[in-house]
UniProtKB/TrEMBL annotation:
GO molecular function: oxidoreductase activity
Record key words, sorted: Membrane, Oxidoreductase, Transmembrane, Transmembrane helix
Spans through the membrane: 310-328
Entry's Gene Ontology cellular component terms: membrane
Record family assignment: Belongs to the short-chain dehydrogenases/reductases (SDR) family.
Domain Ketoreductase: 16-155
Record-given protein name: Short-chain dehydrogenase
Annotated NCBIfam families: PRK06139.1 (NF004792)
InterPro entries for the chain: KR_dom, NAD(P)-bd_dom_sf, Sc_DH/Rdtase_CS, SDR_fam
Native organism taxonomy: Bacteria, Pseudomonadati, Bacteroidota, Chitinophagia, Chitinophagales
Family annotation (Pfam families): adh_short (PF00106)
Length: 331
């Protein structure tokens, strides 16, 4: 029991063994580097082994230790191998970060059903595979932190990305149910992250069946913010963390006005599709890893102007005011 308390209250990341899936780009890569700066030992998992080798070298340069384990999270056996390799290498596993994810956009019935399947396999079953592999290790140790990077999509549905929404809503239920099962294990934590739209290569990697280029909806946040949030959770685990004010706004908007917010989103996307250039459909990185998009950022983000900042803040305040007014009328 002394070892349990020491590991969960230690303020240093040195000696912490942290597994990160989807570590070759975006949030995963940012998280690996952020933790390495604090001398953590990171286990890097993704399908692109060459890119993982590059990330590992960066981590070592920053003062951390790194192990590369090429892994496809849709393969449950591969995830078990990842967990075993991490435990053997580090002697234990302190934190497991479920982060690997994919996106597919397009009209539901015009998107191939095997694409919907692959999105669910990666985003939902991939997280379940990770938890299923690491929880026996956590229970044997008596401690551990499971981080599920879910996204605002766990609260706010995305028309024209139905499989993605199903996976994200499913993840929220998965975490809640699992947290209930672990109520007798106070040193084992399940931590959910809900970031807003991020400037990562994820959009470039997406399966796209809309016939038009995809762009993230503004405001687009720096994925480093998510990496910083994960770093904090390693030391101070909590059940739910929101990253970006827009994520909170969208959660409130859908909670209070589900039909209105959902239809506005659909209308906005349809308006964009009618005016966007035409391109060929693509599977993106759904079935095979992409050779492009290996950085943390996707190049979507530009520094907001003071006017844009003021508009975003006003939108958030207005949304909160409307919500409070609506609640007041109900009371």
């Amino acid at each position: 029991m002394e070892e349990v308390n020491q590991r969960t209250t230690d303020t240093s990341l040195q000696g912490k063994v942290i597994v990160i899936t989807g570590a070759s780009s975006g949030v995963g890569r940012a998280t690996a580097l952020a933790l390495a700066r604090k001398s953590a030992s990171v286990v890097l998992a993704a399908r692109r082994d060459t890119v993982l080798d590059e990330v590992a070298e960066e981590c070592k340069t920053l003062g951390g230790k790194a192990l590369v384990v090429p892994t496809d999270v849709t393969d449950g056996d591969a995830i078990k191998i990842l967990a075993a390799a991490a435990e053997e290498w580090g002697g234990h596993i302190d934190v497991w970060v479920n982060n690997a994810g994919v996106l597919a956009a397009g009209p539901f019935e015009e998107t191939p059903v095997d694409v919907h399947d692959q999105v669910i396999k990666t985003n939902l079953l991939g997280y379940i595979h990770g938890a299923h592999a690491v929880l026996p290790i956590f229970k044997q140790q008596g401690y551990g932190i499971l981080v599920n990077n879910i996204s605002v999509g766990g609260w706010f549905p995305t028309p024209y990305a139905v499989g993605y929404s199903a996976s994200k809503f499913g993840l929220r239920g998965f975490s809640e149910a699992l947290r209930g099962e672990l109520h007798q294990w106070p040193q084992i934590h399940v931590c959910d992250l809900y970031p807003a739209f991020l400037d990562t290569p994820g959009i470039q990697h997406a399966g796209n069946y809309t016939g038009h280029p995809l762009r993230p909806a503004p405001p687009v946040y720096d994925p480093q913010k998510v990496a910083e949030a994960i770093s904090r959770l390693v030391l101070h685990p909590r059940p739910s963390t929101v990253v970006g004010g827009m994520a909170s706004f969208l959660r409130i908007a859908h909670g209070l006005f589900p039909a209105l917010s959902r239809n506005i989103t659909a209308n906005t996307m349809e308006f964009y599709f009618k005016r966007a250039d035409s391109i060929k459909n693509t599977d993106g990185n759904l079935f095979e890893p992409a050779e492009y998009g290996t950085s943390i950022h996707g190049g979507w983000r530009t520094p907001p102007t003071p006017r844009q900042k003021a508009f975003t803040n006003a939108l958030l305040v207005a949304g909160l005011a409307v919500g409070l007014l609506w609640l007041g009328k109900r009371v």
